[in-house]
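re: ur question from the group chat, yeah i did fold both. here u go
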Amino acid sequence: MNQNKIEISIIIPFYNASRYLNQCITSIINQSFKNIEILLINDGSTDNSQLICEKFANQDCRIKITNKIINEGSETARFSGLKIAKGNYIFFIDGDDWLDNLYILEKLYLAAEELNTDYVEIGMQRVLDSHKIIKNKFLSTSPVVISNPQLFEDYFISFFGFNKLSVSVCGKLYRKSSIEKANIQPLGIAMGEDLGFNLQLFPHLNNILLFNQPGYNYRIGGLTSRYNPHFLKDMKRLFYFKEEMIKKYDYKKAIPFTRYELKNVLKSEICQKIIYKKGSKKDIIRMISNEIEDPIYKHLYEINSSENFWINPFVIAFKNKDAKQLLEICNKEVIRKAPIRFLKNVAFKILNT
């Protein structure tokens, strides 16, 4: 292998990540695999992230910095990196995450080359801040190659609400030619951008490899996060995009899952408004009344009436267009889960003092 050739382009989008960038970038620089370029995409940060990046760039010629004037979100930042990437492979990592295995990129690259896979995925550990309290792992039971036709028929469903595979773009070594073949376009969303990327890519893949080894640390610092005003709008946008993909690829098996997910999106939006006090009771009822008239929810009636879906109290209230009852159901759920939220927030605050 030519020691000067760029094999992997590491794309790191970030916004005000000064607290974490050192750990993230260091975990890449120290990798045993050296034929890389590190593309730091500064998405309009207002903290001292830029100074941290410049310090690293002055010490390592493989680092290139792109400074965006305004914050446009992870989706746009990643595509900015893709446009200038020179490697044969692409690896996305967020600026507040890190790799904890010094040989992981080398293992992914060698496996991709040997097996000619379109992407190789490693296990993702959900870590509370930097304290390595692992909340979850996305791992296969053993290393496995999944090829077509099984890959498309049985695993494309992962991106319609039945997750057999991780929907994240992080922790995967993508073959760049596969991305180019798919001609992936940004959807202009702030929520679910990873899902949108993989929805477009997956039909163009021939085979993938799942490693049974963890290596990507995903920092879950959002336990005290704010209400997300983009959630409902972006989830609707994704629903319609999924509809396009179902029609394009005649993937009818995904239809029930998208409908169940649509119901859960509405429920989540109401719960979030309650938790973060986005309006009075009357305001939220008015929002619900207006929202359930959106034509998008007519798709819920495409679920077979004999299924248990229609005996769910939330669905019954929705069918009756009872906004007050919908609010009451969501309010009870918020109260029921309040102790769990409280304990998580306390843990997060303690570990960050």
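okk and heres the other one u asked abt
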Amino acid sequence: MIYFDNASSTKPLKEVIDLFCSENEKNYANPNSINSFGMHNFTTINRTKNEILKLFKLSSDYEVIITSGATESNNIAILGYARKNINKGKHLITSKIEHESVLNCFKELEKEGFEVTYLDVDNEGHICLEQLEKSIRKDTILVALMASNNEVGSNLDIEKSREIISKFPKCVFYSDVAQAIGKIKVNYNLLDFFGFSYHKIHGLKGIGLLVKKKKINLDSIVYGGNQENGLRSGTIDYPSFVASTLALKQCFLNLNSNYQHVKELNTFIRKELGNNSEIEINTSKIENPYILSISLKSKSSSVVVEALSTKNIFVNSVSACNSKNDEPSHVLLAMNKSNKIARNVIRISFSHFNTIDECKEFISELNSILYTIKG
């Protein structure tokens, strides 16, 4: 099997699975129970949170909120901040290429009376910093921009964005870092808060984090027993959190070596595909080497993805969240691609487990399929 759909989800590390099974068997108490069994897990959770802050090189001014993943983190952050701070202003800024879990939050807030500016992007998938500077104003309370795009792998200039936002004291900076975490270097101190999912970095599904400055006040969107400082009620999935944090530690430890390895894979496939007149490469240059977006000029991407699957080669079209919808990529449309190119996308996404031999086999099978299928 060749798995090139890592932007959708990654294979959990063996040590993550082993620790998850062990903790489920031995330490299954509710962390919020006041008995010693539960308190043991509660103590371990707090210790692990402190270790996470150190990984991000963040001070005790920040805190870690455990969620079910990036979608929930994005919702808690964006909806929670806007609603809590509506008295400061009702203007919000995001971009046209955000993940749906961000864009749909802003659409909901528009229904509630907020005004949202959606920033344009250039042909490479970068926001216009001049437009950000012109759009931000005294009643702007939140800017939410993803660190690395999940479809084309374009990276945000966080430092310059922070410079602009910092001129407006009432405005805070949130980032969906789901595709950046452990893959590219990010100065997390420049962000007021950020969220991600563990299953994108060889952890487990159904677990993620929202990391925020303590002074950032949010309204809860999940009501219950007031776990996680009242922001995310519900029993914490202790085994998944502790086990998946192993994956977070590993990806930070091996960030540079993994980056170089994956960049070689991306470079190889990019070079091979560049010779094929049937293919348009949407990711114009390597910024996040873990993601490579291409489009088919005269074939159906869904047919090709399915044909590759029969060969045990797994890629995807656009984002996994939208891959079953017959809609063109909103990211590529924002990048001024044609409807046809935006509809016939194949996203190739790597992990450090992939090899050059897998890349060669993928290229061979893809060329064969493109030669044999009709339209």
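fwiw on the second one: The two ends are 26 Å apart (CA to CA). The chain has a mean pLDDT of 94. idk if thats what u expected
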